[in-house]
Amino acid sequence: MKREIIKTGDGSYTIYLPDWNEHYHSKHGAVQEALHVFIKTGLHFYLEKNSSKEVNILEIGFGTGLNALLTYMEAEALKVRVKYTGVEAYPVSAGELAALDYAEVVPGENASEVFEKLHASRWEEREEISSFFSLQKEKKFFHEISAKEEFDLIFFDAFGPRVQPELWSEEVFRNMFRALRKKSVLVTYSAKGDVRRAMQAAGFEVERLPGPPGKREMLRATKG
Asked: What is the DSSP string of 47-68?
């Protein structure tokens, strides 16, 4: 499938799939979207509600590694220990990663070094990126995830339900529900009615929240 690197509204880049008319991140701003959906509405919300200094995160769709990079920066700033697991069936190529150049737009003097470390880390092995952040990348399909009550927070960043509706089904969200501990959270950029109903059928309490720039709403689901 053809893939193109394009600049988004906030000056950061993303990968565009013209055959699907689908982007890895929002065309209105890749970094803005990730900060709003996953850091502010996900990580900050969880930490505020649980007064925790440790959090176990699962990312569904590791992709470019942008969400992991931003989470690393936040873990260092807040002195929170993050155990991060990223699942990806089709890893991004080295050439594409170089072209994305997120170190230019993500705050932090060592952003470039960290981004390289994240992608240089071995698949299927947990690696200590810093004293506050460890990463394990798993090359697998989402339905192959078998974790039970292991995670505190899920970043659900799969390709959109328009192009891959099977990734947003009740069955998938039941799997996510099993993977989460009690009082844990799942956040995603999507706000489609079908997605919200699938989450609710899986057992989640779901709320619609203001979305990132260019998107009216997003969803946050909680396991009681």
From this structure: HHHHT-SEEEEEEE--TTSHHH
Chain segment 73-107, per-residue pLDDT in tens: 999 999 999 999 999 999 999 999 989 988 888 97
The number of folded domains in the chain is: 1
Q: 14 in a domain, yes or no?
A: no
Distance between CA atoms of residues 49 and 52, nearest Å: 8
| β-pair partners for 85 | 58, 136
Tens digit of each residue's pLDDT (9 = 90 or more) over 139-148: 999 889 999 9
pTM over 0.85: yes
Residue at 91 is within a domain: yes
Strand, helix or coil for residue 26: coil
- DSSP tag of 5: E
73: domain range? Answer: 28-223
Question: Cβ neighbours of residue 33 under 8 Å, at least 6 residues apart?
Answer: 25, 26, 189, 212, 213, 214, 215
Tell me the CATH number at 112: 3.40.50.150
88, part of any domain: yes
Asked if residue 89 is part of any domain, the answer here is: yes
